[in-house]
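thought: fold this chain, then report.
action: predict
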Amino acid sequence: MTVFPNVKLNLGLRVLGVREDGYHDIETVFIPYYGFCDTLEIVPSHSFGINISGPEYTGWDPAGDLTARAWRLLRSDFNINPVHIELEKTSPVGAGLGGGSADGAFALMVISDLFSLGLRPGKLAEYAAMLGSDCPFFIYNTPVFATGRGEIFEPVQLPLDGFRFEARVPEGVHVSTKEAYAGLGKAGSSTDLKTALRGPVSSWRGSVVNDFEASVFPAHPEIAALKEKMYADGAVFAAMSGSGSAVFGIFEK
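observation:
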């Protein structure tokens, strides 16, 4: 079975503080974005195997990839056979787009289908949360307002009729989540994201914020320049996605 995991964009991102478990509470809106997709093929096999390739594969251990972890996670609860995984990475790595999280979530859904496990979205999302904070979003793959570690969702209505998204990634610039949080400081912005998003898109500049920009832009001026280029190219709103390095713009169609 072959699927094409897409990525996500963060429409605003507030970091509210550190939790007792060491994670951070956040507020954000996740939006699916199909401008970048990986190719994931999973088939039954006599023994487990995984191969990762593609222009964005930079040599991490395949056995530790989220797709392999997804299979091990379901195998621990269900009597399923081994699989062989082929993953071609074309979505940017270290760009705040959640490509790896998408791969893990899609792997859970494919394996559930392959072995007729009958796992409903809510249960798949529980397994996805064990893989990573961004993973549950890709089970639903629809715009949501996310809180907690980014795994608690509620529906969101956005005034985006008549607009299109475009994401760009500065060449050779990667930002790790650890780096982004390390530079953030003790508190993020005080902007009320829900309130800001109720206004027209033309009002979002300056009110819908990504708290990571304050720490990432000084360290990576190429990302800040890319955001300004989006505005120069006519974007109504532009921002960094997640912890970077990708930047997206919202343009009138």
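thought: worth noting. The first helix runs from residue 66 to 75.
final: tokens above.
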